[in-house]
Amino acid sequence: MMNLRGLPKIRDSLSYLYVEHCFIEKDNSALKLIDASGVVPIPVASLSVLMLGPGTKITHDAVTIAVQNGCSLVWTGEEGVRTYAAGTGETRSSTRLLHQIHQWANEERRLQIVIKMYQFRFPDPIEKGFTLQQIRGKEGARVRDTYARLSQEYNVPWRGRSYNRNSWSNAEPINRAISCANSCLYGVCHAAIVSSGYSPAIGFIHIGKQLSFVYDIADLYKVELTLPVAFKVVSENNPNIESTVRHQLRDQFRELRILDRIVSDIDQLLQPPEETNYDLDHDFARPLDYWEPPKDLEDKMLCS
Asked: How many angstroms separate the CA atoms of 144 and 162, rounded?
């Protein structure tokens, strides 16, 4: 039986809020946004991630309030397309992080998890005996078929995934829409990962980036979430593609309770041990015990 005390409350939270060209400060025990149009309250107690775009200023007290309420802060580029930095998550326990490292370092277990991640994406079981390269080929075909199907369904021409991040406005509308949608998904996955106590850097499929595990988890949901929203928005000839994508995707996240799914799916993939030390989150700064090596290892080192 799942122990609810070991689960972060992020599974019941709203997904994300993207802001830019504004000032954020503390408002009693909450936050408020100040911009040219006036003052807007921010529901930080029920928000999972606050994406801070260009031109945003935030006070020290506001950051403190966000952390106390388990709201992750992510500093992003224009329209949320690039991620520059992120704050810490909700839990201070390292149990799940250490378990993630253990699963990653064991090559046999890591391969099992990689295959499970791909299996998550297919409606039918993967045929027994398939190599990892064959599975990746099957996934590539699935994604290509999805692009072709959505292109036909929404009457949006598709010429492949191509854009220049240094010339964003010159990209095709559909590529801009997909990039914006994926960035929102990355932000929500990042918040779920760090709030659950895992590392966004220790990826199983993707490697070498500080957000490798974010990319791993986000790929589980792109075909279902970001691609349909992107094609739909472009088909409607919206003048502000990025803003419309963010708003529609946020509605989708809420309807599908995506944060609940992300936390549950990660735990299903990695199968972490049950959290037992609940005092860790009550005092953020208190150190715990020292690591003790196995006695036989210590004796061996002393004798060498």
From this structure: 14
Q: Which residues contact 52 (CB under 8 A, 6 or more apart)?
A: 19, 20, 24, 58, 73, 74, 75, 76
CB count in 10 Å sphere of residue 104: 18
Pairing of strands 22-27, 30-35: antiparallel
The single residue listed with the structure tokens 């909450």 is 30
Cβ proximity of 48 and 195 under 8 Å: yes
Most confident of 79-88, 95-104, 162-171: 95-104
Q: pLDDT tens for residues 40-55?
A: 888 888 787 788 888 8
Give the whole-angstrom CA distance, residue 155 versus residue 23. Answer: 40
Q: Can you name the residues that pair with 52 across neighbouring β-strands?
A: 19, 75
Hey, what amino acid is at 285? A
Nearest of 22, 33, 34, 16 to residue 74 by alpha carbon: 16
SS3 128: coil
- The angle that helices 226-235 and 173-195 make with each other, rounded to 10 degrees, is 150
Edge-to-edge strand order for the sheet containing 38-42? 38-42, 30-35, 22-27, 56-58
Quick one: which H or E segment has residue 117? helix 107-119
pTM, two decimal places: 0.73
